[in-house]
Write a structure and sequence with these properties.
The chain is built from 2 helices and 6 strands; from the N terminus they run E-E-E-H-E-H-E-E. With 129 residues, it is an alpha+beta fold. The protein has one domain: RutC-like (60s Ribosomal Protein L30, Chain: A). It has a 6-stranded mixed beta sheet with strand order 1-2-3-6-4-5, covered by helices on one side.
Length: 129
C-alpha cells in the first residue's frame, strides 16, 4: 500500500517564494527545500552580512526540522550554495555551532549568484521517522 507524502509547512520559517513546499516527508526521509535567508515574516535580508544571512538560513532549516518533529541530529545530507568561496570558513564555523557533534554528509558549492542577491542557500535531507 502506497503512503502519500506529507507536506511540511511552518510559520516559523520563511514562507515558500514559489510553487513548492518547505519540506516533504516520504518513506522515512525528509526533503527540505532550499532555504534562503528570508525571515519567517517574509522580509528580506540581502543587505545583511554573510554571517547574519547564514544564521537566518540555518534558523529556517532548524524551524522546518522542528515542524517535522525532527532536529539537526536527524540531518543526513546538507547542500550549501555560497556566493564566494571565501565565505566557506565562516559558514563552517556557524554550521558547527548549530549541529554540535553531529556531522551529516555535506557539500559546499560556490556559485556566482543566488536569487534576490543572497549569499547563501541551504537544502537538506533528513530522517523523517
Amino acid at each position: 500500500m502506497a503512503v502519500d507524502p506529507e507536506f511540511i509547512q511552518t510559520a516559523t520559517a520563511a514562507p515558500p517564494g514559489g510553487h513548492y513546499s518547505q519540506a516533504v516527508a516520504y518513506q522515512g526521509l525528509l526533503y527540505v527545500s532550499g532555504q534562503l535567508p528570508v525571515r519567517p515574516d517574509g522580509s528580506h535580508s540581502m543587505a545583511a552580512s554573510f554571517a547574519d544571512q547564514a544564521c537566518i538560513a540555518l534558523d529556517n532549516l532548524c524551524a522546518i526540522l522542528t515542524a517535522a518533529g525532527r532536529g539537526p541530529q536527524d540531518l543526513l545530507k546538507v547542500t550549501v550554495y555560497v556566493v564566494g568561496v571565501e565565505h566557506w570558513p565562516t559558514f563552517d564555523r556557524l554550521y558547527a555551532g548549530y549541529l554540535g557533534d553531529h556531522r551529516p554528509a555535506r557539500a559546499v558549492v560556490p556559485v556566482p549568484h543566488l536569487h534576490h542577491g543572497y549569499l547563501v542557500e541551504i537544502e537538506a535531507l533528513a530522517r523523517a521517522c
